[in-house]
C-alpha cells in the first residue's frame, strides 16, 4: 500500500491531477481519492477545480458532466466502459413529442443522463437538489427524465405541479425489494431505514429517511439510532463505518457493477498512460452545459 501511495502521489504531481470518487466507488479508491462525495458535490468540485487533470472515479455521465462543466481540463476515467444504464432511458422523440403536446412544460433531467438528453432539457438536477430546483421552476408541467422513481419522489414533495415521466430506473435501486427491507426491519426493530430516492415507492414507504448518498451519511451521523438499514448501493458503507464507527449498518442493496470498475489499478494506469480520456462533441457539450450550470445556480 505504501508503494502504491507513493506512486500515486508522484503521478498526481506529474499530471497536476485531482482524484474525484463517488461513494459507490470501491473502498480502496475512496481511500486514496482527494474528494469523495455524491453526484452534486462532485459536479461542483469538477466545475471549480484548479487541477489540470480530473480523474473521475464514477460512471460515464459523471466524467462527461465534469468535462462539459470544465472544458479546459483533461478528464480521465479509470474505465471508460463504466456506464449508468439509466442514463439512456429516455429518448429525444419522447421529449420532442411531449413538448409538442403540453404547454408550460419544463424538461428536468436527472444528471444520470447522456449529454444528448441534457442538451434537450431546461435544467439538470441530482438527488440532493431535485426537490428544491423543481419547486423553483416557473413552469406548471414537468417532464422528469430519466428516473421515474426519483421523479415520483419529487412529485410527492411538489404536489402543486403536474409530472410526466420517461419510465427509466436504476437497475440497482429498483431491484431492491420491499420484502427484503421488511424482513430486516422485523429482525432489527430499532433500526432506522435510510433510503435513496432511486428506490421504488414501496421501499420508500418503509423508510424513516430518504435522501442522496451524502444526505444518508449526514443523517446516520446525526441520528441517535444505533442501527441502520441502508437502502442504497453498499459502497456508502465505507464512509458510514468510517464516520460512525460505533454504529451498525445493514446493507440490503446489490452493488453497482459499473461503479466497481473503478479499481485502484485502473486509477494508476489512467494516470500513468493518459488512457480513458473523456471526449465530448463541442456543439453537444455547449448545449448540455446550460442545464448543468442552471442546476449549479438554482441549487445554491
Ligand atoms: P447521488 O450521488 O446523488 O446520491 O446519486 C446516486 C447515484 O446513483 C449515482 O449514480
Ligand atoms: Fe446508475 Fe444505479 Fe449504478 Fe447509480 S447505482 S450508476 S444510478 S446503475
Short characterization:
The chain has 300 residues and is of the alpha/beta class. It folds into three domains: 2-83 and 259-279, NadA-like (Rossmann fold, 3-Layer(aba) Sandwich); 86-169 and 286-298, Rossmann fold; 176-251, Rossmann fold, CATH 3.40.50.10800.
List keywords for this structure.
single chain; 300 residues; alpha/beta; Rossmann fold; 3 domains; four-stranded parallel beta sheet; globular; binds 1,3-dihydroxyacetonephosphate; binds iron/sulfur cluster
Write up this protein:
With 300 residues, the protein is of the alpha/beta class. The chain folds into three domains: 2-83 and 259-279, 3-Layer(aba) Sandwich (Rossmann fold); 86-169 and 286-298, Rossmann fold, CATH 3.40.50.10800; 176-251, NadA-like (Rossmann fold), CATH 3.40.50.10800. 45% of the residues lie in helices and 17% in strands. It contains 15 helices and twelve strands. Strands 2-1-3-4 form a four-stranded parallel β-sheet, with helices on both faces. A four-stranded parallel β-sheet has the order 6-5-7-8, sandwiched between helices. The chain is globular, with a radius of gyration of 19 Å. The mean pLDDT is 97. 1,3-dihydroxyacetonephosphate binds at residues 38-39, 84, 112, 126-128, 170, 198, 212-213.
Amino acid at each position: 500500500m505504501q508503494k502504491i501511495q507513493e506512486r500515486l502521489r508522484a503521478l498526481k504531481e506529474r499530471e497536476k491531477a485531482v482524484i474525484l470518487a463517488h461513494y459507490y466507488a470501491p473502498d480502496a479508491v475512496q481511500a486514496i481519492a482527494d474528494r469523495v462525495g455524491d453526484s452534486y458535490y462532485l459536479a461542483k468540485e469538477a466545475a471549480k477545480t484548479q487541477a489540470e487533470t480530473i480523474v473521475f472515479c464514477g460512471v460515464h455521465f459523471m466524467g462527461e458532466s465534469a468535462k462539459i462543466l470544465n472544458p479546459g481540463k483533461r478528464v480521465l476515467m479509470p474505465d471508460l466502459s463504466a456506464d449508468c444504464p439509466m442514463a439512456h432511458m429516455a429518448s429525444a422523440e419522447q421529449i420532442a413529442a411531449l413538448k409538442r403536446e403540453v404547454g408550460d412544460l419544463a424538461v428536468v433531467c436527472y444528471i444520470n443522463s447522456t449529454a444528448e438528453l441534457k442538451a434537450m432539457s431546461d435544467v439538470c438536477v441530482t438527488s440532493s437538489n431535485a426537490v428544491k430546483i423543481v419547486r423553483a421552476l416557473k413552469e406548471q408541467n414537468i417532464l422528469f427524465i430519466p428516473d421515474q422513481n426519483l421523479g415520483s419522489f419529487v412529485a410527492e414533495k411538489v404536489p402543486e405541479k403536474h409530472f410526466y415521466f420517461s419510465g427509466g430506473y436504476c437497475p440497482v435501486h429498483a431491484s431492491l425489494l420491499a420484502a427484503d427491507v421488511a424482513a430486516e426491519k422485523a429482525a432489527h426493530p430499532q433500526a432506522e431505514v435510510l433510503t435513496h430516492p432511486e428506490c421504488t415507492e414501496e421501499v420508500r414507504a418503509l423508510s424513516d429517511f430518504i435522501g442522496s448518498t451524502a444526505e444518508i451519511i449526514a443523517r446516520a451521523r446525526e441520528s441517535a439510532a444505533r442501527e441502520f438499514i441502508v437502502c442504497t448501493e453498499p459502497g456508502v458503507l465505507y464512509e458510514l463505518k468510517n464516520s460512525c464507527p460505533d454504529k451498525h449498518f445493514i446493507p440490503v442493496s446489490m452493488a453497482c457493477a459499473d461503479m466497481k470498475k473503478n479499481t485502484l489499478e485502473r486509477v494508476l494506469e489512467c494516470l500513468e498512460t493518459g488512457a480513458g480520456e473523456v471526449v465530448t462533441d463541442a456543439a453537444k457539450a455547449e448545449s448540455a452545459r446550460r442545464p448543468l450550470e442552471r442546476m449549479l445556480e438554482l441549487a445554491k
